[in-house]
Amino acid sequence: MSATRILPVGVRNAGDLATICAGEGAKSDPLWERATKAKRQWARDRLTELGTFAWVAYNGADPIGMIQCHPDRDPMGVGVAVIDCIWVPKKSRWGRGIGSKLLAEVETTMQRQHRWFEGKPADGIAAMAFHGEAEGQQSAESFYLHHGFVRVGGDPDLMFKPFQPDIVWTPTPRAVVTPTSLPDDQARVTVLLGPLSCPFQYRILSQTGTYVGEKLGMTVTEVDAVSDPEGYLAHGGLSGILVGGRQLRYDLLQHEKLDKELSGL
Ligand SMILES: CC(C)(COP(=O)(O)OP(=O)(O)OC[C@H]1O[C@@H](n2cnc3c(N)ncnc32)[C@H](O)[C@@H]1OP(=O)(O)O)[C@@H](O)C(=O)NCCC(=O)NCCS
For 143-194, what is each residue's pLDDT tens digit? Predict the structure, then answer.
């Protein structure tokens, strides 16, 4: 077996960062296809904005794991690299050190002088550790705890590891942003599908839109940032679902809450 190589994501392998998230059988699924296309667009936009922001682990030419991050600076000037996602999809690869190698690559990079932090090293590394694991797979939370991260900021998904013991990071609270509602949205379900960092999220949004349309007997219109950039930007350039022009709070991942929300509309 050839050794695992960790390579930065650039324009040439941005597609690998997108397709690695899709499960078995995804190639023949049009929704996955659209979701990975949206992620490819997101990766290209992010490369332009941030430079290297993600790494893919390869076995030969096969992408077998990924990690992606962005910079954050708190009001006191503490600069932190925030990992949005880490993912080793295939069961046959779990527990072989791939996740640890990907994390080490980000830690090493951010401990060197870096353009994200005015040419200085980051003060620490943070991670969004939401539960996206498959059955029997290690959770992101358990993985980060194992690697010395601790919870911070009252956000159950957010973890932090300072690079120096006295560093305190005050994370910026996640902003609540609402897409713009247009007159056409008043009598329909509008699904706004942006260039998303997560193809799972794209699929859930689309599937939730279909579900809501059927449940409420309303027409569903999808506005995809890749195929209809103007329509997407006219809605404020944000992803989400509008029902009769009002933003939906829950999706199919929280089925019961979604049904409750729909019955209250
Ligand atoms: C977490 C994850 C990245 C770990 O990847 P991996 O390549 O299997 O990790 P490693 O092989 O480097 O293992 C890391 C450590 O955890 C241990 N470990 C691995 N699987 C484990 C499991 N199921 N339970 C407990 N410990 C486990 C390993 O033994 C290793 O310990 P060591 O450093 O003492 O040797 C991977 O399992 C994953 O993708 N999980 C889902 C993450 C997720 O939900 N992502 C989306 C939201 S961010």
Answer: 999 999 999 978 888 999 999 999 999 988 777 789 999 999 999 999 999 8
- Name residues contacting ligand 1 (CB within 6 A): 85-88, 94-100, 128, 130, 132-133, 137-140, 142-143, 146
Can you say how many angstroms the Cα of residue 18 is from the centroid of all Cα atoms in its chain? 11
Does residue 171 lie in a domain region? no
Are 72 and 115 found together in one domain?
yes
H helix count then E strand count, the chain: 7, 11
Count of domains for the chain: 2
Domain with 132, as residue range(s), is: 4-162
138 and 212 together in one domain? no
Strands 240-243 and 246-247, bridge-based pairing: antiparallel
Nearest CA to ligand 1 atom 23: 138
- Which atom of ligand 1 has the smallest separation from the CA of 87? 39
